[in-house]
Structure of Outer membrane autotransporter barrel:
Amino acid sequence: MRTRFLLMGTSAFACLALLTGACATSSDEEPTRSDTGTSKPGSQADADTNEERPERDAGDASAPETTDGSDSDSGTDADASAQPITVTGRVVDQEGDPLSDIGVSVAGQAMVTTGTDGTFTFSNVTPPYEVRLKTNVGTTPVVHAFTGLRTATPQLVPISKLDAAPPQFQGTIQGTLSTPVSTGELARACVEGVDRPIYGCTVLYPGDDTFTLAVNWTTAPSPLARVRVLRFTLDAQGVTTGFTGEGSKDVSLSPNAAPKVNVALVAPPASGTLTTTVTPPAGATGTAAIAFVKFGPFLSFPLEQVVIDSPTPKSFVVPGSTGATFSVFALAATATQQIAGWETGLAAGGNAKPKLVQPPRLVAPAEGTQGVTISTTFDATNPDGIPLTFFCVPTQEGIPLLAVSTVESSATLPDVAGLGMTFPVKAAFQCGLLPSGTPGATADSLATGAGPIGSYARLTTVGTGGPGLDPTGALVTILDEYVSVTTQ
């Protein structure tokens, strides 16, 4: 357990696929200047980037999200919010699919276990309240608390979903274009799930008229997919100047199969522009931005990455496809942090200003603190008010991983007693911080949509198609900034 989760803690938490390509699950293309999956920040290479999520997760029975990430059922009147409510929620993965057999305790009440639909219900709950989830990574228990909630319909993604697991199904698509890619052009092909997320993108270079898409998905063994292709022209610097063709073709997938598709390219819609302004935090370098076109709920198609080397706005050329919207994902890095911000739901002609937040820092407890209990305060600096997840990873087998998500700058570790567990005695942990979400959002943003954990989990698949990022937000991954503590 420690090897798996600490590998996640130091690698997955620390890795944005856009910066290194190491987290990518896309196919086998080699990046070039105008591909959007990069080997280092600032290059114009093929993006391993996927963006905004569908307006509603598949199978989600919860209330719709508001623009700030809070639940529309949440009360804002202080007197009304103090009245007991019935909480009916769901525990899901980052795609909104239900998680069964998860232990749940709300407001300290006795634990229940989610059914096949991932739901749980608690009555007589007075907001604001706390939810504690008991899951597992391998044989190690994981307890994750969400604090300050008011919504009657929370939807929660536990931190255990950050433990990297292989996709349930894999296959390939063998594709052929009606005309080859010409000199001065590139083309990109991505797979789109018709009714569920499916992942896979690749790039075609001058002279190519065939391609292979490595695809993966997690539900339904034989889903219907759609292959979309965009062909675009480049200037001498490798910057996209326009689009010369687009096409799509439906195909049925099967595990380990390699269906063939012939994609006829037709003239694309007229091109538009999307202006982007990014201001990095002090001390950050390597600032870049990537644009995506959103084709329906299950495909965010990566377009191009540009280097942001000044406050001057940069422009993306985007296709004017009917019904399409656009997103911009920006990123930068310091010596110890990788910082990302994104803005979604944009129209051609718009001006994107994705926010790169000032990185929060864990300031207490200090390195080497002993006698930690559920009363020990964990503190962080948080200049921009981004939601925080404090986590403590055990250094030995059989000890639970503990985490708490909050919109406050302080938190305490979850009480595990109501989950049929005993708080570990004289156990060693490495504790850290994951800032992820919409700056200034309410506590209910932790429990609507993917929340801070699902939002980050989806970032590890950026550039491989799929639904894409959650609504507008930010993320900081903190490299090797952990404190060692021991419980009482």
Summary: The domain at 85-161 is CATH 2.60.40.1120 (Immunoglobulin-like). The CA atoms of residues 195 and 266 lie 25 Å apart. The longest strand covers residues 240-252. The first helix runs from residue 2 to 12.
